[in-house]
């Protein structure tokens, strides 16, 4: 069943998950890789037959970072929400919990994209696919993606006229909706400039002191 982004976020936020760039993301604090591996096995069991299709787990010595996403989609639905509920329930029963990492000493869950402005997307995309070892994204996405899911997606934004004197590559940093204000404030306090907040809370356009741009983005304002 299709859900709005607001419905999805409302359903999972109380469980410690966040909707970030078309995925549900959460982390589980652990004391070792071995404990993280146990968590990963418990999460996979909770997802059942859907695990291989929708689940990704990134293990670190102090945390397991979880992501749920419908295959070939940049949107989640009722199934992924139900899986998040099942995962959290199973972990809580065994003494762990899912959280988004807000307010901690390490950044919260997030997703990174690199955007490249191009006049001829079809001409430049094969270069980036080759040099990064990436694969073509979903048809219509104008993107290349890491087939192992380690590196950020690179997507191409259509230009209408040449822009040789302005930077043409920027980072899109997708954060939890309740992290965005803090992240924007931190960037401004660190010497950045607000280029535009006309599309906030979908995204804020920021720049460093030399004009290099980055966008802080959330799911809000996109339904």
Automatic annotation (TrEMBL):
InterPro entries the UniProt entry points to: Glyas_Bleomycin-R_OHBP_Dase, Glyoxalase_6
Superkingdom field: Bacteria
Gene3D superfamilies: 2,3-Dihydroxybiphenyl 1,2-Dioxygenase, domain 1 (3.10.180.10)
The keyword Isomerase is assigned to this record: no
One Pfam family here: Glyoxalase_6
Keyword Lyase: yes
Entry keywords, A to Z: Lyase
Residue span, Glyoxalase-like domain: 114-217
GO molecular function: 4-alpha-hydroxytetrahydrobiopterin dehydratase activity
EC assignment: 4.2.1.96
UniProt cross-references to PANTHER family, sorted A to Z: CONSERVED PROTEIN, HYPOTHETICAL FUSION PROTEIN
Name of the protein: 4a-hydroxytetrahydrobiopterin dehydratase
């Amino acid at each position: 069943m299709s859900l709005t982004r607001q419905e999805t976020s409302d359903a999972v936020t109380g469980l410690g998950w966040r909707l970030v760039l078309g995925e549900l993301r959460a982390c589980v604090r652990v004391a070792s890789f071995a404990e993280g591996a146990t968590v990963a096995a418990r999460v996979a069991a909770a997802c059942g037959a859907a695990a291989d299709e929708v689940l990704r787990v990134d293990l670190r010595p102090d945390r397991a970072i979880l992501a749920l996403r419908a295959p070939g989609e940049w949107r989640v639905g009722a199934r992924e929400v139900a899986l998040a509920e099942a995962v959290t329930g199973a972990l809580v029963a065994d003494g762990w919990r899912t959280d988004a990492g807000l307010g901690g000493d390490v950044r919260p869950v997030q997703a990174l994209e690199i955007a490249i402005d191009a006049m001829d997307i079809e001409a430049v995309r094969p270069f980036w696919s080759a040099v990064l070892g990436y694969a073509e994204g979903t048809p219509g996405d104008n993107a290349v993606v890491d087939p192992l899911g380690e590196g950020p997606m690179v997507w191409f934004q259509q230009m209408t006229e040449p822009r040789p004197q302005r930077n043409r590559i920027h980072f899109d940093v997708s954060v939890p909706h309740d992290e965005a204000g803090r992240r924007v404030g931190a960037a401004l306090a660190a010497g950045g400039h607000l280029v535009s907040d006309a599309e906030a809370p979908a995204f804020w356009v920021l720049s460093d002191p030399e004009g290099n741009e980055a966008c802080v983005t959330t799911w809000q304002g996109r339904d």
